[in-house]
Amino acid sequence: MGNLNVKLHHLLDQFSTDEKRILLVGASLYIHYALAAVVVLWIIIAMLREKRLLTIIKQVPRSRFALVFCIITTIVAALYENWIGVACGIGLLLVFLYIFYYRTVITKPCFELLLDICIVCSMFFVVWGCIEYYLICQRLDHSVFELFIANSPKNRVHVGSFNANYYAMIIEFTVLLCFYKALQWKSVKHTLWYGFAVIANLFMLVLTGCRTAWVPFVVSVPLLILFCGMYKLFALSLVSIGGVGGFVLMNPELMKRAAYITKDFAKRERIWTTAIQGIKAHPLFGEGPMTYLQIYPLYNGHPTNHSHSIYLDPILSHGIIPVLIVAVYFFSNLKEAVKLFTQKIDVPLFGLIVGFLVTVLLHGMLDYTVYWIQTGILFLMVMSASSMYFQDGYNKGKRKI
Fold first, then answer.
1. Ramachandran region of residue 82, left (φ > 0), alpha (ψ -120 to 50) or beta?
2. Distance of CA 247 to CAs 126, 206, 210, 211, 217, Å?
3. CA distance 280 to 321
4. Given this model, what pLDDT does residue 152 score?
5. Would you give the DSSP letter of residue 171?
6. How confident is the model at residue 258 (pLDDT cuts 50, 70, 90)?
7. Which residues span the membrane (predicted)?
8. What local confidence, expressed as pLDDT, does residue 138 receive?
9. Hey, CA dihedral for 299, 313, 26, 112, is it positive or negative?
10. CA 167/CA 182 separation, integer angstroms
11. Does 367 have pLDDT greater than 50?
């Protein structure tokens, strides 16, 4: 333990205070959502005390569009007395401020260590999840060996993520991080470690009972392998995914909660119908974050927190105009990320970003799990990682908002 402590201190001494803060955020995402919120707030308070916040905002391209989006959506929520939405609007503002900070200080060594910290800390969730699963089985009088998965989210493994489906998306992201690191091929030992982390996290994905979370892997993993330039492995991945998919289809009993698919899809249809009615009522500005929670009684909708669709909920909650405003910021961020590929700066990182985007867009067809502090921040940190290659532009004042 003494040697490990010395090595850890030696490793961290190579990083600045700003980079250490980012590493702390990464670790907190895999401990508890409340801790992640506290750490992000602490960093923003530190920026205020250091009188750096305004400078950071000015350094990030199109940042003012994200800030205007947060201000509008919070005001709209207040006008409709949507107090949960007001809290979410303030939360969105804090997350964006942290991401601006992240974009101005992230470096390649820090980013690579950040991913390793996330993967290591995911093992904490694995241990916690196994204990939680045992307690669930005890409470519902099931044997742990029958791999029982309840249909109710509250009776499925969710560890420090509030909801089983949120944890499922964290696992999706973590598996992609493992593949990204393994494909760098540093040594057999490292590759075996990342392989073990993939298997452990996929086992936890089974325990979450989230069926939608498996779908993005069909596209995201092969794409990541392809962008890493491993064409034979890419072909092998397609064959493997096809074989496993065919086997599961021929043996549907292997798919947990398969019996509830028709019933649950009917719920989704009811939710989406309600969301569309809400969009028609207030198409331009919505009623603020978590609008669905406000309106479902008005339309006899299914009771839930959001519209379970990344394609409906942003428009329902924020309206067309604010969505277009924040899209300007994200489009600028995406253009920066595309340069990693077009200019051959860091194609594997671009592959990781594409993998994250595919995961959100495919999973988002049936759920809105990226709209959460842990999943949202992890997604934005990977999406914004391209900024590490453009910081000279920041420092020289070449990039403007």
1. beta
2. 27, 17, 19, 16, 16
3. 14
4. 75
5. H
6. low
7. 22-48, 60-77, 83-101, 113-136, 164-180, 192-217, 223-250, 271-295, 315-334, 346-365, 371-390
8. 87
9. positive
10. 22
11. yes
Sequence-distant (≥ 6) Cβ neighbours of residue 255 within 8 angstroms: 211, 248
Q: Amino acid letter at 184?
A: Q
3-state class (DSSP) for residue 149: coil
Closest by alpha carbon to 365, among 322, 317, 287, 313? 313
Tell me the two tokens of residue 350.
Answer: 């671009």
For 233, counting Cβ atoms within 10 Å of its Cβ (0-12 exposed, 13-18 middle, 19+ buried), the class is: middle
Helices (H), 183-286: 188-208, 217-227, 231-250, 261-281
DSSP letter at 158 equals: -
Would you say how long the chain is, in residues? 401
Taking the C-alpha atoms of residue 101 and residue 151, their distance in angstroms, rounded to an integer, is 40
Residue 376 is encoded by which pair of tokens? Answer: 């949202």
Residues 178 and 194: their CA atoms lie apart, in Å, by: 5
Find tokens 């309840």 and name the residue.
150
Structure tokens at 49: 């005390």
Separation of alpha carbons 230 and 184, rounded Å: 10
CA dihedral angle for residue 95, residue 98, residue 103, residue 105, rounded to 10 degrees:
-160
Q: What distances in angstroms separate CA 229 from CA 89, 183, 185, 222, 223, one per listed residue?
A: 41, 9, 12, 11, 10
The pTM score is 0.92
DSSP string, 274-305: HHHHHHHHSTTTTTSTTHHHHHTTTTTPPP-S
